[in-house]
């Protein structure tokens, strides 16, 4: 084998290594830094030594209120996802299966709403929620979050429903099901993987939200995890508590990374569904 | 990935067309069939309205209504002192277009700075992300082994909340941080200056270039292999294959990715807000400016900035659709036609070669 051929054979592997390193190195640095003690937090060794869980203990100390913030994130992202999925399920079915006037226009409008700058809905809603006393409530975060999760879910589910053959429901309807029954008993169970994928993508989007949660809360007990971490304060005024921030960042990210590792195939299918066609 | 490669049957199922096509069929049985069909269509319309209306209602409440409210609010000034009582008045004074005209006078500097920052971030990050993303997609498309590892690692930056990645990069760009150690040079990345802009660009590109790579990879995988074989037989170089085949064929996927990224970059908030901080001139974007004004209870000017950002985003989206038209809208009709046309030419050549 000539040198050039050998080079050609190894080049893709080298490229892959570069891509993986590019994507993971900063995350790895967060992980390593979170496992250092206070004294060697500025150490630049590639492995934490000695290994210390001090940062994690300080993150979960009751004074920090981080457990509550995680719970808030879970509630807000969970309810947002559930509500968006429920509404999107009906709409996506209509978009994929029924012929009606203005269908294209409606779908375009729904997708277009997800592109609007969040800040231009946050500013007026902030004023409205202040007037009706909704500041520091879950609904003040859930309702505005649906402005971007609902279009996302509709778009994703529509693509999934379109991939399923029409004959399935026709067969069910020939067998005596109504359209509604065919939908409930045949389509929804068969679309379960698609619904699940949409749920993951929607949940990650809602979990990562920052601007709405930042604007709609000022009580620490109502802040979501992303906002709470950004407001961690150090022991002294001018010290940024990087150690506990990194540890909290790992805690917030690990569930998502695990989801990504387990369901990567489906997540990719969901994310690229719109782009590949 | 295999799921996306299946061409979806987007054509609506039309009962009756097959029957009509059959030659020699007497017209009589068709008439009674037409009646239930039209009734079914009316029923379908009602069902569709029923299914779609909850979503439209929610979007009206959370998007349309606030947008109209913002338009109205932007015509009011901040609450001032009531000259009669000496207390802060309950109502905001109507100031007309003053919030907008102020942009060209005193308040203008901060607005134009935010405007140029937003534009700078959008242009620079999206161009870098596109180039790096395409390169990543080409690499991933080549390497067949370990694809799932790459796919998983590419999703990691996407899954990390932007707010967290802001903190992560703040740590990396810290004065004693790893970035300066690796560079062997002291750069005050997170102080207010041009280096802060660069820090935001690097962090944003890290997070989203892999995502563009993923979308482009999806586009690459639906390109039939024969196209490249034909080109190779015709003696096209690797570079020619890239410019003449790969790029045109992934164009629809790429355009969707670039449009989404542009609109996302235009409303950038979390990353500069956390990485550098609020009210830092060098990285303040329009979203940050509007949020800052609103948090200081100056809802009028805040709404005006939000409305202007909204218009900016809208114009960019419109320009995209106008310039690139058929490639973007729907993702069904136009894209398909474009694809089959582009593929059609090399395919014919395949036949010529093999014949």
Can you describe this structure?
With 277 residues, chain A is mainly alpha-helical. Helices cover 72% and strands 0% of the residues of chain A. Chain A has a single domain (62-275), classed as Orthogonal Bundle (MetI-like fold). Chain A has twelve helices and no strands. In chain A, helix 3 packs parallel to helix 6 (139-163), helix 3 crosses helix 9 and helix 9 (192-207) runs antiparallel to helix 12 (242-272). The mean pLDDT of chain A is 86. Chain B is mostly helical and 355 residues long. Chain B contains 15 helices and no strands. Chain B starts with a helix and ends with a helix. Mean pLDDT of chain B is 77; it is low at 1-39 and 329-355. The chains are: A mainly alpha (277), B mainly alpha (355). The interface between A and B is large, with 100 and 111 residues.
Q: Which helices and strands appear, and what pairs or packs with what?
A:
The complex is a heterodimer of chains A (277) and B (355).
Chain A: H1 3-34, H2 54-59, H3 66-97, H4 103-113, H5 118-131, H6 139-163, H7 167-174, H8 179-190, H9 192-207, H10 211-216, H11 225-230, H12 242-272
Chain B: H1 2-5, H2 17-21, H3 30-73, H4 98-101, H5 108-142, H6 147-159, H7 162-172, H8 178-183, H9 194-221, H10 225-233, H11 238-266, H12 270-275, H13 286-295, H14 299-324, H15 333-354
Average pLDDT reading of chain A: 86
Determine the N-to-C terminus distance of chain A: 40 Å
- List the total number of helices of chain B: 15
Biggest β-sheet of chain B: count, sense, barrel?
A: none
